[in-house]
Amino acid sequence: MYQKTSAEIFTYWEQIRGNADAPLRSLIQPSAVSHILPELFILENTADSNPRFRLAGTTVCNLMGREIRGEDFAVLWAGSQQEDPVRIAAGVMKHVVPAVIRATGYCISGRSVAFEMMLMPLRSSGDICDRLLGCLTPAAPAPWLGNECLEFLAFDCSRLLYDRPVRLLDSPPHPDPTDLLPPQENIRLGEWMRRKLNLAMGGRGALESEPLRDKTGRHF
Fold it and tell me: Using an 8 Å Cβ cutoff, are 164 and 120 in contact?
């Protein structure tokens, strides 16, 4: 991964997971990642393994020009390329291994910009991994993104992040949430992001471990 936001959220994900393969979603403390919350999103698994947006930060929604909470993950992608990103996202939850995707976003004007997307598994309970924490970040400054919305993302390549730090076997599986932040700051990520999104919408008018694989490569 090359983008600062990707590195920061992956480091935080590593911190809260302890020696587990994935952290509990209840361990995410919004105040610890408040400066990058607009670029974050959460996907949830479905019965047909077609992940959908449970939450999406203001930057992600603004890029698409609408609130995408409740929409399928597939809607972000070009129609002919939806299969690979959807399979990767579902695989991150099924196999409990984080991944990074590189994509190109296109506007109706023909302008384009490269993006990096991180996908990290979350558990809703100790034995169920049915959530995914992600971020979407431009790979280079593009001031025009504030005036133009993306029509779709085109999938370029992806890789799995197998190379994660070894944890001590006798360390606790998850840190105590109360050790991460004072109790008065312990607000759930979902509530925090909903508040930020509502404020933004109202104001607008109402690790390298596997080589890069191209779009024809096998995923999961």
Answer: no
* Burial environment of residue 209 by CB neighbours within 10 A (0 to 12, 13 to 18, 19 or more): exposed
Kind and range of the H or E run holding 86:
helix 83-95
The burial of 53, by beta-carbon neighbours within 10 Å (0-12 exposed, 13-18 middle, 19 or more buried), is given as buried
Closest among 41, 62, 72 to 149, alpha carbons compared: 62
pTM of the predicted model, to two decimals?
Answer: 0.75
pLDDT tens track for 23-71? 999 999 999 999 999 999 999 999 888 999 999 999 999 999 999 999 9
Q: Which DSSP state fits 33? A: G
CA distance linking residue 176 with residue 27, whole number of Å: 8
Chain-centre distance for alpha carbon 106: 20
Categorize the per-residue pLDDT at 200 as very low, low, confident or very high, splitting at 50, 70 and 90: low
- Phi-psi region at 50: left, alpha or beta (left = phi > 0; alpha = psi -120 to 50): beta
